[in-house]
Amino acid sequence: MQIPTNARLYLRPVQFADSPIERGGEVARLAGGLTWFSAYELIAVENGKRVLQYTLPVGDLPADDRLQAIAARITAPRPALQLGGRVLRFDQPQVMGILNMTPDSFSDGGKHLDDVGAAAAAAVGMAAAGAALVDVGGESTRPGAQEVWEGDEIGRVVPVIERLARSGTLVSADTRKAGVMEAALAAGAQIVNDVSALLWDDRALEVVVRAGCPVVLMHAGDPRQGADGGRGHADPLIEVYDWLEARIAAVVAAGVDRGRILADPGIGFGKSLADNLALLNGLALFHGLGVPLLLGASRKRIVGALSNEAPADERLGGSLALALKGAELGAQLLRVHDVPETVQALRVWRGLRDAALVGR
After folding, report:
1. What angle do CA 328, 264, 120 make, to 5 degrees?
2. CATH 3.20.20.20 fits 81-356, yes or no
3. Where, residue-wise, is CATH 3.20.20.20 in the chain?
4. pLDDT (tens digit per residue) in 51-88
5. Cα distance between residue 70 and residue 48, in whole Å
6. pTM of the complete model
7. Do 267 and 305 touch, CB atoms closer than 8 A?
């Protein structure tokens, strides 16, 4: 096999194994988690086109510095985050609960908007049900949603975040606005989750650097467009990977510790159904970025499109299928609406993994 000298190279873990027992040297551990794999799909790209696509056992990876560096990032454990008195671990899939303080979110808009106490209670309930953290947002990014004035967004989320912080619940702030980030962090949020990867607001990157907080960088295509269904990508897996790799490098160069960055491929944001399916099937490729992965596919359009146009509140089965797909491919955070059901599904999945690790 001749590897093109000037090509961009990628490795996608494939051929997953139940257990590493009695398979020394034949399997590798994915990002220090609960999944092992026995082969890589090697992809080489020149001038935007795949010129090589080849599957090889993990033990036969060529002694090419580029490939060895990618493989090291794929297999390296993702360090836990110490966030105040809480620890967010990445050695197994965790659930991020969704709390929308909005009137118009596609699934649960208006459910909690006018009752801070009920909203906080719902979020505490998510944590009690097994969510590692709760993602609080005050602006919808559904197709056609109106931009929310910064002051209104702050007014929606800060009272809830303050209550959650006092309760000991770990909170991330789902926002693309610097002023909202500042207010949310001051209220007790520990993480920024920005669908625009800190590109919407010119001050956003500065805020995250100054706060030293973890940040989720999501791919959404044009940061000034929301979830619009998408025009389609020639090679969505490679294009999204390249974009996230470049964005992570830029954010690190600006002063954010790489160990405090998470990446999200942005299912449903500026992408066609075919794009989303390609990203979900190829999700393991993104471990080559060397950071924890967040997957947010809960109740999204992809579920309706594949299930007779089921409305958003009837997409639990499909959402669980996508969450388990993410867990199987090593996603460390699963952003979901249905916390108890997803936690239960993951516990069963974990039980199967544990049984396999015990051996015969």
Report:
1. 95
2. yes
3. 81-356
4. 999 999 999 999 999 999 999 999 999 999 999 889 99
5. 19
6. 0.94
7. no
